[in-house]
Amino acid sequence: MGPRKHSRSSSSSSSSGSSRSPSRRRRSPSPQRRTGDRPSSRRSESRPRDRRRRNSRSNSPKRPRTRDRSSDRGRNHRGERRRDDDNDRRRRSPRSPVVVKATGASPNDGKRDNKENDTPSQDQPTKSKTVNILTQDTRSGRTGGVYIPPFKLAQMKTEIEDKTSQEYQRTTWDALRKSINGHINKVNVSNIANILPELFQENLVRGRGLLVRSIMKAQLASPGFTHIYAALVAVINTKLPENGELLVKRVVHRFRRSFKRGDKVVAIALVRFIAHLVNQQVVHELLALQVLWLLIKNPTDDSVEVAVNFTKECGAMMSEVCPEGMRGIFERFRGILHEGEIDKRVQYTIEGLFAIRKGGFADYPSVHEALDLVDSNDQITHELGLEDDVDVEDKLDVFRFDLEFAKNEKMWGEIKKELLGEDSDDEDGGDGDDESGGGSDDSDGEDEQPSTNAKSVVIHDFSEQDLVNLRRTIYLTIMSSVSHEECAHKLLRLNIRPGQEPEICAMLIDCCAQERTYLRYYGLLGQRFCLVQREYQAAFDDSFANQYATIHRLETNKLRNVAKFFAHLLFSDALPWTVFEYIRLNEQETTSSSRIFIKILVQELSEHLGVQKLKLRFLDEFMATTFAGLFPKDNPRNTRFAINFFTHLWFADTPFKQQKLKAWQPILTPNWVIGTFFVVGLIFIPIGIILRLESDNVVEYSIQYDGDGKLDSSTQDPVVSIRSVGGTPGACALGDGDGNTFDLNRHGCLLSFKLDKDMKAPTFVYYQLDNFYQNHRRYVASRSDEQLRGNQPSTRSDCDPMQMSPDNTVKYADLNDNVGTNGTWNLNPCGLIANSLFNDIFWINSVTTPTGVRYTQTDTYPGTSLEVVNLMSQSGIAWKSDIASKFDNIKDTDRRADEMYLWQNPNYRNIIPKGPGLPRVLNKTAWTSDTTANFGVKSEHFIVWMRTAGLPNFRKLYGRIDTDLPAGSTLEFLVSSNFVVSAFEGKKSLVLSTTSWFGGRNPFLGVAYITVGSLCMVLSILFFAKHKLSPRKLGDTRYLVWKNNQ
């Protein structure tokens, strides 16, 4: 809050250093009200309000809770509504500048809960320490969810020595926010004159953002109370016009946004607010004309309906101050009606509007008599256009550290004294004796004022003794009556004064909730009252809203009784179905209790009306707005939630869902337990033996050729051996910078397997990687499935952090190219998985038969028509479903020059063909046949790699040998080592293995079965011995615990 100049005459106080807007002006008197011969005049000097009002609209209905129930779901509902003890409220001084018309009613007796999510601070000063809201710093008011009683919080507030510290300012900010919300939430027609002085006690300069946000939030939650909030804003605007201007800006900004988004519910509420602000002269009528023209310029069903509602609310005022503009608006309405392009229902609303206009808007007065609090000459009107750029000043809604906090608080104290007319009794005590006699006369006159007013004081009894007696009588009558007809007759004979109908409704609902089961007696009684007097329908409507808002406080049994009670009123048509407007079925605004309430309510309706009749009720087009919250269409997520809710509702009452299926529940007798363990052991042990034998029949050989523990050329092993191609020791072991060379002389080696057992076809060739975490979350997600299917994706964000190649990456056009193009390329496919492809190459270099005959790569192997190098087939190693549907190459027409494909990547061009039918290059390319190798992303080596492993140590299939290899044969593989594993301390191995009927070699499975079976056998023997040595009678009560305690 910055320095502020305050003047009683101009009301031009500014906050945060902002000056008064040039668009704000006072309304000048208009001669139209003074004489009737000038219809084009603007306003009269003292414009009389239109007094034609319905008596029913003067009494404000009970307003539902305005705060958002979604913010209240996860909290403790320990606090109950506190009784308003404003009986001794400070009476305003006769000299108070806040001039309101007293309504003569007492303050509101109920106080709504005031709970709101704390808004965290956004801007922190550089000199203060950052406040951690998760700490248990109770002085700052943030305790991480720990409840602190108000008196304790006030005590801690007084213990803060530095009144300018950030903790103290935050505490006062939270108190200011809660106090403003409390005043706004409890304001109504009867107590607005008493709420205003209390509201001006708060620092509305510092908290003007909080004030505006609280008013807008309350208005959106309760559009029926818009005229009350507009009257409140009108009074505040006369004293603090900056607050009124900020509210007008935010309302206009929010309306424009809701109109663009097509949010009909919010738009209707906001145009209603604008209409009442126009009625209160807070905003210029030009804004109303702009809003109307925007809505009916390009008419739709929704926009015309909103325009009709808006015209009803402000039509009386607009007809007085701008008759020509309203004449043009109604001409446009008439044109829309004649065009006939809108729905019939909307056309009827336009015809109804013309009827209301013909009646002079008698049922829609511009300002209620009880809310006409400000004289037209005192009001400040803001001239703001619908298309004007506005600054909503969102920063005012959050806490900001103020370096001049003490000075600004003192300045507000002076402003508050001026607004409320407060004078210190102890100020300038000696000056009164030196003043002239005129001053004494004035003070005498003031002393006589209370005695004059005392004659007209009306004494109100706030002890509520009469109300308590009435409730007791109602309760005894309900509980003592034999039938609902007798009870209704007795209650109607009671002296029920107007306005006390909700007492009967509340007592009837409470008595119904207390019953152990629902009694139809209460439903019939409520039905009788609704049909006898219409006032009880409105009372039960308000009761439905209050019960649904606080349904989480009821136990399950009470909740069921209340739901069945209201269901009875609905299916008997005693209560209008408009009560469904209070229900908004979505995940954010419902709790488990409210969902149970809706479930029981709908089930009862379907039981009494039938599903078909209930469906017709819900599909009624005239009630579509009423059921909009029950069947939401504003958000796909809310729609999906409602569909799942009702699907579960209709299909949940099945034996399977209710867990009522017939089940076998054996009694665990000793004989049954012993027999079960014995049978399990008898079955598991043979299975384990069979699995173990089958696992031992699997022939498997493995050579580790890179990483710690790799096989060395000096190792003397009769089965496996390794030697380098170029004579370099450890040629296949790569350092961090030795990868992707495809040079056999530098990094090539020969791996020999001397088979000591027959290997029946097929023999599978695997490469094994250790300590490579393919299951890492970021690694698994880094891929573009759209790109892998051969399409150009709209975004590559799924491939992060591998969307583009590193700088100066060489891109080759053909396998035979020795020089490529340097640059930075878009990778296709992109992602970490696709660009970390295993690129070691394995060839069968030679096969030596048991007789000693050696066949090299290009020799034909005996018994086949294949060359030795082609004995290992590299086709059919990937899943057929992956090849058919998940991987496809990009079309030639979709290829881009700035992309680098797999066959152009220097790391993979030797293992991925550029196209089908390419000839092989011995000891250089991975493919060994020019007819079966797929190219691009359809390469089966690439597809196998793209299916990520779940463990850090894994094997992946490289090829398959479909020829039997007899014992004594020597199989020699030529390896081109290109994949670096030293960077992550990994290991590389080449594995040969056969399979059995249950898979590869897995000795653990057989051992596990044998172990479990043996344990069961041992337990069965032990239990049998225990049962025979010391048997125990089944159901022996001597073993009960309570027997031993006596």
Automatic annotation (TrEMBL):
Keywords: Membrane, mRNA processing, mRNA splicing, Nucleus, Transmembrane, Transmembrane helix. Residues 9-21 have a biased composition (Low complexity). It holds the Pfam family MIF4G. Residues 1-130, 419-456, 783-805 are annotated as: Disordered. The chain crosses the membrane at residues 672-691, 1004-1025. Residues 49-66 have a biased composition (Basic residues). SUPFAM superfamilies: ARM repeat. It is found in: Membrane; Nucleus. Gene3D superfamilies: 1.25.40.180. Residues 421-449 have a biased composition (Acidic residues). One of its GO terms (biological process) is mRNA splicing, via spliceosome. GO terms for molecular function: RNA binding. GO terms for cellular component: catalytic step 2 spliceosome; membrane. Residues 34-48, 109-118 have a biased composition (Basic and acidic residues). Residues 119-130 have a biased composition (Polar residues). Residues 469-585 form the MI domain. Belongs to the CDC50/LEM3 family. Belongs to the CWC22 family. This is MI domain-containing protein. It comes from Aphanomyces astaci. The lineage of its organism: Eukaryota, Sar, Stramenopiles, Oomycota, Saprolegniomycetes.
